[in-house]
Design a protein that fits this description.
Structural class: mainly alpha
Largest sheet: none
Number of helices: 14
Distance between the termini: 55 Å
Helix content: over 70%
Shape: globular
Strand content: under 5%
Radius of gyration: 23 Å
Number of strands: 0
């Protein structure tokens, strides 16, 4: 294989590598934030500190690197940014953390896998995603999306026998009761996470649409983090009024969760999502979200000593199959830039053909 072919293959694989990296980062966030929430950290304050860190890290890079490509700010764009800052940084993350408080990190990651289906349906309705039921690529995307949701439901509802892993055998019965979640808490947590996923899907669609008029991904990420900090602060002050102690910062899990999630899961995540969405669309980005649940299930059994059951393992297997089908279907599609280039090429060929017809007709007179 020549060097040119290797470069071309790497370029084609970059979107896939980017979203896989993103899912590993999100999986780490689930583990760290669940540990911080278990210590009594306020989810409202955690959201504020997370986006404050992201703004401080991403902001300077956006000011310098996007200087030449950043378009003029308009009222319409700023309104969209305000809505983006409310949808994901405030509504989705607070609902997700509250749902995680009532359940476990693995349960929260499993429930969030309805995101690809929600995003797919919304993108289909808004014509951001092309679907032809007679096309094998569209059939694979539909089947794969359904499989990822089914796998998530298997992980959530089918418990199965306990897998006796040597690193979890030493847990006490007290710890097992803590890891166990009653049905009422599960339902309450599931409803909160579902509502959060709906906000997340709306965020992905709106971000994809905003990038058309504001194509500076890094600057848009910085604006979203800033608005998320301001709007999140307003919500936290209302929800935690009279409890100033929740704002205290120490060298503990709270600070680690805020710094990690701020840098990797807000700043970098919004930027990576924006870049990949411009080439592959919002459905491609969200299709990989089930991967983080598989990672969380494995990591939480090591770090949080959560019990691992056979149902979760079977669900993870179904999710991997569904993810492969979606990736295969999307890999056979052309990116928006390629489609535009093809359209221009076809138009130029038609113009040349018309010109030849006119020339021939003129010579025949």
């Amino acid at each position: 294989m020549s060097g040119h072919e290797l470069v071309e293959r790497f370029k084609a694989a970059k979107p896939f590598l980017a979203v896989v990296f993103l899912q590993f980062g999100l999986a780490g966030m689930d583990i760290l934030c669940k540990a911080a929430l278990n210590e009594g950290v306020s989810n409202y304050v955690l959201v504020v500190y997370r986006h404050a860190v992201a703004t401080l890290v991403v902001g300077p890079f956006a000011v310098v690197l996007d200087k030449k490509v950043r378009p003029k700010m308009t009222l319409a764009i700023f309104t969209k940014i305000m809505v983006l800052g409310l949808l994901e940084p405030v509504l989705d993350q607070n609902l997700y953390y509250l749902g995680m408080k009532y359940t476990t990190a693995t349960f929260a990651a499993a429930m969030s896998n309805i995101l690809p289906a929600l995003t797919f349906v919304m993108a289909w309705i808004l014509r951001l995603e092309k679907v032809k039921l007679t096309c094998i690529r569209s059939q694979c995307k539909l089947l794969g999306t359904a499989a990822t949701v089914a796998g998530a439901m298997i992980m959530t509802l089918v418990k199965g026998p306990l897998l006796k892993l040597f690193w979890t055998r030493a847990t006490t019965s007290n710890q097992q009761q803590t890891n166990g979640v009653d049905i009422h808490s599960s339902i309450k947590g599931a409803l909160m996470i579902t509502a959060g996923c709906f906000c997340w899907a709306c965020f992905m669609i709106l971000q994809s649409m905003t990038l058309r008029t504001y194509p500076a991904e890094l600057s848009l990420s910085a604006w979203i983090c800033l608005m998320g900090t301001l709007e999140g602060t307003a919500v936290a002050l209302v929800m935690e009024r009279g409890n100033a102690a929740v704002w205290a910062i120490h060298w503990d899990g709270k600070l680690l969760a805020a710094v990690y999630s701020g840098i990797f899961c807000s700043g970098l995540a919004y930027y990576i999502q924006g870049v990949v969405m411009k080439h592959r669309g919002p459905v491609f980005v969200t299709a990989f979200s089930p991967l983080s649940m598989v990672i969380v299930a494995v990591m939480s059994s090591f770090i949080l000593r959560e019990q691992l059951f056979l149902g979760r393992l079977l669900g993870a297997f179904v999710i991997i199959i569904g993810l492969y089908l979606v990736v295969w279907g999307k890999s056979k599609e052309k990116s928006p830039e390629e489609e535009l280039a093809t359209t221009k090429q076809v138009g130029e060929e038609k113009d040349r053909a018309n010109l030849q017809v006119i020339t021939i007709a003129s010579s025949c007179k």
